Amino acid sequence: MKTVLLVVAVLAAACGGKKSEPAKPVESKTERAEKGMSPELTKFHDLLSPRWHADKGPQRMKDTCAAIADFQTNADALAKAPPPAGADATKWTAGTKDLTESVSALDATCKSNDATAFEIAFKRVHEGFHGLVENGEHHEEHEEHGGEHAEHKM
Question: How many domains does the chain have?
């Protein structure tokens, strides 16, 4: 009992000392990378990112498949958007076509409820998005957080 009281007293003294500084907001790599990215690319990224970075498994698949309509809407918006300044227009058009097709393929995979095929199809969507980013002027900025898009382990 004396030991417990001593530990509580030490912890109380340690906590009650100096006031801590309020937390300062830190600009995330994503926020820095997306500055200047087109609204359509940013919107697609904001939909893709939390699902891509989630742990692989049934919940990731469920959450992603539940957002298929939004993925398709955002991919269609990218296809209708003009290429960003500095982008190769032919590559942009091909890239948006590939992205919309990969979202459609992901939709079909979601409907089949095949977890292995889902991961392959979802990876294709992710790579299609990055192909568009890399085609535009934002390649160098987005590379800064490229490590965050590594493969996920089960």
Answer: 1
Say if residues 33 and 145 touch (Cβ distance below 8 Å). yes
Q: 134 lies in a domain? A: yes
CA atoms of 17 and 66, how far apart (whole Å): 49
Enclosing domain of residue 51: 37-147
Average pLDDT over residues 63-75: 98
| pTM, full prediction | 0.69
